C-alpha cells in the first residue's frame, strides 16, 4: 500500500487529484444543496470551499482559528481512538490530506480528505458544534481505558457527527459527515425506507450500528445548541448504563 502523507505539500497534488476533488465536489453539491443543513451551507461559504481548489490547510487553519479557535492536524490514516480524542480535546481535528483515485469515486475503505475535509471541516466553524465535539471528547478521555464506555460514546459520535440529521423549519436536513461525503447515503437518509427518530441519549446508547452498509436508522436534533446542552446528560446517562451493567452478575 502506498504510504500516505503526514503533512500537506500543496505542490504534490496532481491534475488527477484536482479532477477528483472537482468531480466529487460538484456531484455532491448538486445533491446536497436542497437537503443539507443551512448551517453547513453557511459554514461552507465561511471556509471558502469550491470545486476548483483543493483546500489548503494553512489557509484553512487561519480561517478556522479565527472562527472558533480550531485547527487541523494532518494524519496519514484514521487515528487510533486515544489520539483522535486527545487532539479533539485540544481543538484539533485529525484529517487526511490525500484524495481517492478516479477509480475509487464511490467506495473507499478508509476516509480520505474528501470525507475529512469537505464533509467534516465546514462545521468546525460553528461554535455550538465544536463545543459539543470537544465536550464528547473530554468525556471519552475520562473513560479512555474502558472499552465499553468508548463503545457507547462511539454510538453518540456515530449518530451525530457522522450520521446526524437536523430539523430546520420543519424539514429534515443532513449534517452528519458520513452522509455528506457519500452519494449513496445522501440519496437514502431522508427516504421513507429508513427509520427517523428524535435525538434520545438512552436510545442511542442502546443502538448498535454497522460501518459497512448504508444506515437504516437516523437520529434527529433540533439544533447544535441542543447537542451542546445535552453533554451533562450524556455523561450522567453513560455512568448509569455502566453502573447498571457492572451490577449484572452472570
Ligand atoms: Fe468522519
Mind explaining what this structure looks like?
With about 250 residues, this protein is α/β, with parallel strands linked by helices. It has a single domain, classed as Orthogonal Bundle (Phenylalanine Hydroxylase). It is about 50% helix and about 10% strand. The chain has helices at about 15-30, 40-45, 55-65, 80-90, 115-120, 125-140, 145-160, 175-180, 185-190, 200-205, 225-230, 230-245; strands spanning about 70-75, 90-95, 165-170, 170-175, 195-200, 215-220. The protein has a four-stranded mixed sheet. Strands 1-2 form a two-stranded parallel sheet. α6 packs antiparallel against α7 (about 145-160). The longest helix has 18 residues, at about 15-30. Bound molecules: fe (ii) ion.
Amino acid at each position: 500500500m502506498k504510504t500516505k502523507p503526514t503533512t500537506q505539500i500543496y505542490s504534490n497534488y496532481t491534475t488527477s487529484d484536482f479532477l477528483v476533488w472537482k468531480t466529487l465536489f460538484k456531484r455532491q453539491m448538486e445533491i446536497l444543496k436542497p437537503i443539507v443543513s443551512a448551517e453547513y451551507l453557511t459554514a461552507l461559504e465561511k471556509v471558502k470551499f469550491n470545486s476548483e481548489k483543493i483546500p489548503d490547510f494553512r489557509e484553512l487553519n487561519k480561517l478556522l482559528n479565527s472562527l472558533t479557535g480550531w485547527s487541523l492536524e494532518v494524519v496519514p490514516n484514521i487515528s487510533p481512538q486515544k489520539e483522535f480524542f486527545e487532539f479533539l480535546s485540544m481543538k484539533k481535528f485529525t484529517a487526511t490530506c490525500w484524495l481517492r483515485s478516479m477509480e475509487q469515486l464511490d467506495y473507499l475503505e478508509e476516509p480520505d480528505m474528501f470525507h475529512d475535509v469537505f464533509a467534516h471541516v465546514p462545521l468546525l466553524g460553528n461554535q455550538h458544534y465544536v463545543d459539543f465535539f470537544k465536550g464528547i471528547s473530554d468525556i471519552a478521555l475520562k473513560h479512555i481505558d474502558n472499552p465499553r464506555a468508548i463503545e457507547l460514546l462511539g454510538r453518540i459520535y456515530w449518530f451525530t457527527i457522522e450520521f446526524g440529521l437536523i430539523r430546520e423549519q420543519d424539514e429534515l436536513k443532513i449534517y452528519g459527515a458520513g452522509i455528506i461525503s457519500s452519494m449513496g447515503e445522501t440519496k437514502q437518509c431522508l427516504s421513507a425506507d429508513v427509520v427517523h427518530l428524535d435525538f434520545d441519549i438512552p436510545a442511542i446508547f442502546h443502538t448498535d450500528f454497522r460501518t459497512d452498509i448504508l444506515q437504516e436508522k437516523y437520529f434527529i436534533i433540533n439544533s447544535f445548541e441542543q447537542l451542546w446542552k445535552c453533554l451533562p446528560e450524556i455523561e450522567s446517562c453513560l455512568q448509569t448504563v455502566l453502573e447498571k451493567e457492572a451490577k449484572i452478575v452472570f
